Amino acid sequence: MSQMNRRRALQLLAALGTTGFVAACGSDGDGESTADRGPIKIGLITPQAGGFKSIGDDITNGFQLFLDLHDQRLGGHPVELLTADEGDTAKTGKAAVEGLLKQGVLALTGVVNSAVMVGIRDTVEQARVPLIGSNASPSSLQSVFYIWRTSYVLDEAGRALGRYLRDQLPANGRIAIIMPENVGSPDVVRGFRQEFGATDPRIGDPVTYTNATANPGKTTYASDITKALAKKPTAVFCFFAGAAAVEFIKQLREKFAGPIYAPGFLTEGTVLENLKDNALGIQTALNYSADLNNTSNRVFASAYRKKYQVTPTTYAMASYDAAQVLDQAIQLTGGKPTPQQVNLALGKIGQIDSPRGIWQFNQPRTPQQKWYLREVQRDGQVMSNVLINELATLG
What we know:
Blueprint: H1 3-16, H2 18-26, E1 40-46, H3 53-69, E2 73-74, E3 77-85, H4 90-102, E4 107-110, H5 114-127, E5 131-133, E6 147-149, H6 155-168, E7 175-180, H7 185-196, E8 208-210, H8 222-228, E9 235-238, H9 242-253, E10 260-263, H10 270-275, E11 283-286, H11 295-308, H12 314-333, H13 339-346, E12 352-354, E13 357-361, E14 367-379, E15 382-394
Helix pairs in contact: 1-2, 2-12, 3-12, 4-5, 6-7, 12-13
């Protein structure tokens, strides 16, 4: 093993654990030093303005952190990271993808909005360039060959909480379901009903759908909340993220002091900073918690806090893993990778030693992974999503 490869292997061992080490050493047989590998371009697509900007920033930070820990390389190749603004519609997302493809990217990653992900599907598939989506996506994204996801499919969050609340909610309890009218909400509701029991009278009321804007005002949800609370529920199940999550919880707390359950996006990132005491006690299901006790998470969370002065989110973690799987796939292709070779290699990398715990891609190209229950608690002067227990393995 050359000096360069030995140093590379040690770096991967420190940052990724043994899975990364094996992947790094596996291609030594091609006889090519990583020093001889030419630069590659990776396209990163995120919203750069609006209500989802904070999520996009986390995704950018997670990917960049992996590069920082690996000499700005993926698979031994120096990386030029090209960014594009996905905007807030399928049209703007498609324009972002097309612009990056024209610049000759080897692979794409990012994408926050589910509507954008669905809207760019055909463009990505026809271009035959792999996209590693690093945010949750809808179940309607089926039969794809070049689209992979390192986050999760949206119905899984509903399934994880449905199974838990089915046993926790009292026999005389009642849940009000409140969701934005967007692409992902039907998945969340379907997954929740599937595990809780579709005919269970405790969730027998119709779902209350609200405005789907990412930039709500101070009264955007007021009338819908009043409607949902009319039948005196004992708990609320909802699905919001970013700026919409902040406004929804503030408006809900003006009228409801009971338990709130949601997919983990509700309390991720800057949401907690803005909600403060309004977030206390909210329980969420997610594929990641920053206080998970494993080697990969200790490396990731420590490095993330040191660089960005904040606790990492699931968005950052999934993007870090997007970089990790690209690193391993590109390593497997040898010295002159093509998008098609990278795409085939993605199916061969096996288990990923991730900050969330060990996971691997399933047949639909999404993670098979553990889900965790978290509760917002006070940690000194800071609100934190505290890990309560493991809920299920899904995917």
